Amino acid sequence: MILVIGGTGTTGRAVLRSLSVPTRALVRRPGGLPPGVEQVVGDAADPGPLRAALTGVSGVFLAMGNGPRQEAIELGVVAEAARAGVDHLVKLSAPSAAADSPVAIARLHHRVEEAVRASGIAHTFLRPYAFFQNLLFHAERVRAVGWFPAATGDTPLNMVDARDVADVAVAALTRRITGTHLLTGAEAVSYPEVAARLTAAGRPTRCVTVTPDELRADLRGAPDWLVEHVVEIQRLATTHPERPNDTVARLLGRPPRRLDDFMAEHAGAFGGPIRTDSTA
Asked: Where in the numbering of this chain does the NAD(P)-binding domain appear (predicted)?
């Protein structure tokens, strides 16, 4: 039995769709899961539902949403998984996870990774860069005004499709692949180039370069921790180059999904038909 914690998130939902072995999900609200997935309703921070969900489980996929409670919840999951005798834990982490990372949430991931190592559970740490799916956060503004802001200038970013990350997670869970894996897409693309590709594909779009303070102002209304996280990861991209690797292809036996195909798939979200034959 595989337990998925975070099954309603972008990656966790894709993991649930792809697993073909007995699967259970710990969810806050019932319903909405793929057919055949067993569910335990409760909060991962609550030891009762968490222990019930871990009963009889051999593998765990852990992908909590970023937030102030994330570290405490993930540390609790690790402790309970060790208590339950879980054989293998696959954790969604961050590419810059280290004690001295300039990104607060990456330091959080490092501390949880250290707890997993100390627990003695066999483990897999998946460290993807930003997801293609994050581009959809800009879609409403692109439809309305034809531009979106970024503080990364012309810095190439190595975005990856969350579904590829999920497929690697499934491979790790079912084939017992362990270790730490940096996951990238096939290419590094700057935000201005993303805008140029949308434009060439029939959706006129500009990326407006802003300062970190201007980005903070643009994000006004979001939680403070989230605003600072976005600013930190955009700053990190400009100081730590992101380069493609072959990890997804090596683990899955196929190349990672392409950004152009993702944009074509979500053409409607950006406000217009995007040609699938675009070579921009």
From this structure: 6-174
